[in-house]
Amino acid sequence: MDYSLVVAIELLRAVAGLVLIATGLAIIFGMMRVINIAHGEFMMLGGYTVVLTTKLGVNIWVAILVLAPLAVGLFGIIVERCIIQHLYGRIIDSLLATWGLSLFLIGFVTVVFGNTLEGVSTPFGGFAIGQYKIAIYSLFLILAAAAFIASVFFALKYTKSGLIARATMQNPDMVESLGVNSKIVYMTTFGIGAAFSGLAGGLLAPISGVVPGMGVNFIGQAFITVVTGGAAVVAGTLSASSVLGSISQAVTFAAGPVYGDATLLFVALILLRLLPRGITGRIFTRSI
Amino acid sequence: MLSKVSKDWAGAGFVTTIGLAILIFVPILFDLFEVLQMTQYVVLSLFALSLAYIWGYGGILSFGQAGFFGLGGYTYAVAAINMGQTTVPFLMAIGLCALFAAALGYFMFYGRLNDVYLGVVTLVVTLILWKLINHTAGPEYSIGEARLGGFNGIPSIPIMTLPWQPDMEMEPGQMFQYFMAILIGVYVLLHVLIKSKFGRVAISIRENEVRTGLLGYDVRLYKLGIFTIGGAIGGAAGAMWATYQTFIDPNSFSLEVSAKCLIWVMAGGVGTLFGPIVGVIGLQYLSLKLGETDLINNLIILGTILMFLVLLLPKGIFPSFQDLMQWLWRRVGGSGGERTP
Hints:
The complex is a heterodimer. By secondary structure, chain A is mainly α. Helices cover 77% and strands 3% of the residues of chain A. Chain A has helices at residues 2-32, 39-55, 60-82, 91-113, 136-158, 160-170, 172-177, 182-208, 215-229, 233-255, 257-274, 279-282; strands at residues 126-129, 132-135. In chain A, helix 1 (2-32) runs parallel beside helix 5 (136-158) and helix 1 (2-32) crosses helix 9. Chain B has 13 helices and 2 strands. Chain B is 73% helix and 1% strand. The chains are: A mainly alpha, B mainly alpha.
């Protein structure tokens, strides 16, 4: 009984982890068909924001929940203005440019902060289920992932700016002719996507630690989740995270984390072979 | 007819002749250090050719070319340590990479993945390979007598021998000539391939996939063929890299290697075979010189070059230069020249 409860929590945590790291990427991809290869580095910047500001004495919650998304969101807007806005419609070029940005950021942060592991202590303690110990922070991450999904869904479905964003996604020319500046919509969306990446980086910083190259550990899973999910931001992220997260976590239990990662990829390949446009390209096609 | 053939082959013949001259004279004229340095350029040029071909002449942008590079290197290392000879391991490396490319290509092309999806899948496959091989540190991860060694890599890989002299390790000069001969051979082969019917269909797929399909060609099969050839060449380059360094570690699978390969091809110009080789030499020399100063991180340079190329010179340095020359030529009243393939 205890053991199955622990397994259930771990499965949920794996799914939540995928939701956290994929949401920012999914927003940018779903909205503008840009896969941001620097996504992992945006998360890394979020992590560094948390580490540096807590060192300066800022409360850890303020650092994670306010400063990390704010800093990375602003950075995202700068990136959109300088690089991405010239590359809309040139999918491959935007991939290459963000890859360049990714390498640049890893190199730059290595030069400035050094290639060492920085950490912040994990907030909350743990509690015991029978003989197993669970960190409360894991539960907090599950809640955070639920909040990610809920807020994106609510914003896109029930707010006016969400409506405009979805309309721009479907037909930018029509939106322009109705008097909306689609450039600003794109810029804001990229900024929000970046902010979500930064927030995810900040949230994961206490458990993963922060190094300049940490992005590499996330991007594979993030890309695969987004690509498997398809174009719908909420339904795609949620369905792909659930399928891939639970399967890979199950394999992790059985064989170890590396095989879990490999299985994640393998399942994703098979899913993409069957559903080339992602899960939401075939099922849940009308969802957000 | 004759003029068309000669036009097709003039550029390639010129490049081949220069290549043969380099093959013969470099080991005589230069000292050991420079010959070793140039061997490195030769191996990496072959690696760049693998991407130059599939991207430039098949429209397949692989973000995971390092996967084949690493796989080829590791296959060669493991097989050479176990078998006590090197010709068969070299062929095994090429064969295994071709098989791996074919298997991966089946999933991608028969699933009709495109653009973003293709890029992401190739990238992630390489990432997973990198993670898996990093994980093989313990002694239980051995294949025969070869320990995979995790992030420490495999040291003291046997040096390649000439196929007809299996008992004699190659001297650096010999190795340069052997590798240069392979590079020239692959260059000529690719050129023949591009000019053949297969190559023309491949180019038409690059230009318009749907139209090619409607004309009755099986686009998926052609793409699979192109990707497999690219994988085999990448694997050959990896094996040569392993023997050149007598060492291989998981970094040969890293994103940095994939990115470098892309940058060489982009800088040299997509849609040429010679350009990427110029790209390798130019950028490797540049990063060698800048690396000596120790002030600037290598990744910063790579990233900056990549962003710069995409934003300002999307056609690549070499073709942009050719365009400039042609423009200047027209300005002085001549007719436009032919682009070297």
